[in-house]
Each structure stands twice: as structure tokens, then as C-alpha cells.
Amino acid sequence: MGKVSKADKKIAYDQKLCQLLDDYNQVLVAAADNVGSNQLQNIRQGLRGDSVILMGKNTMMKRSIRMHSEKTGNKAYLNLIPLLVGNVGLIFTKGDLKEVREEVAKYKVGAPARVGLVAPVDVVVPPGNTGLDPSQTSFFQVLNIPTKINKGTVEIITPVELIKKGDKVGSSEAALLAKLGIRPFSYGLVVQSVYENGSVFKP
What we know:
Residues 113-182 form the Large ribosomal subunit protein uL10-like insertion domain. By secondary structure, the chain is an alpha+beta fold. It has six helices and twelve strands. 20% of the residues are buried.
């Protein structure tokens, strides 16, 4: 088997997307930020039957949709093009839209706070015993987290808002959350828009 050329890959992708546009009249546009390939595989398995997930570069998706429109004279799918912004995938379905959305939402995966990530939610460190030894106290002091030593381990006295939604995660915050075993973020496919028979609406 020789290597498949880029041109061949493009042709295969165009054919696949055009076939899906022929076969389906409902499409969910889903944001796929921080979604790993294993997670995507699990979502595909959970949806199997009535639905197909297609990922790809936005430029390739747009080109295939335009090509399909020119070939078939069906201009309705051109309404999908403005929705292809950022890291998105398409979910083609013949199932109930609400059920498909709910199924997709089940596959969220907890993720650690990595340095430089923009926090999608507020992160609050709960009070309680951390199980860390007193030599780690300086970690908490740097982040102004009130602690006491209890039975030879560090205990957090009050809940502390460590990271605000929209802020970037710093190295101290990331290190502390890792030490505490806290995975504060969860990622999955997030349905942004729904296309049905030429109409586009928010879910």
C-alpha cells in the first residue's frame, strides 16, 4: 500500500461529506475544544445507529459544502458555512435532536487545570484536610489560602476561589490543583447550532 496523497485524501473527504449531505437533513454543529480522540471514539460509539460525526478542517468542510451545493443545486446547506468557526465538528443525525444532544452531553471528561488554559468555570478549593505534609505549607501561602496543621497534615480552613472564569491558569494554581488531585474542568462536544431542513437555530 502506497501513501495516500493529500489530493486523494481531499477527494475522499469531499465524497464522504457530500454523501452525508445527501443522506441527512439534520446537522448539529459542535465545538470540540480539548476533546481527545479517545473521547471522540466513545461519543461515536454512544451515538451509533442514527448519527455520524465528521471532523475536519473548516476550510475543507466549507469547500465540500460549496461543491455539494454546486453539484446538486441545493443552496440550503450553504447556511452551515457561517457556523464553521473555531474547532468544530459536524454531527449528522436522523434521530431525535434533543436525544442526540443529551447523549453527546453525557461524554464529558474531567481535565486538569493546565498552565495557560483559560478557565471555563470558577475554580474553588474546598476546605478540609489535604493529606499533604507541613513542608507543603508554602504552596498555600503563595496563593493566600488559609491553612492550619492538623494531625501532621495541612488542612484548608475556608473555601477559596482560586481561579475566576475567563482567567488564565497560572503555574502555582495548576501545581496546587495537581497536588490536591482536583480536575476542575470538564470537556466534551458542545452543540452550538442546529441545522434542520435549511433552517439554523440555537439548541
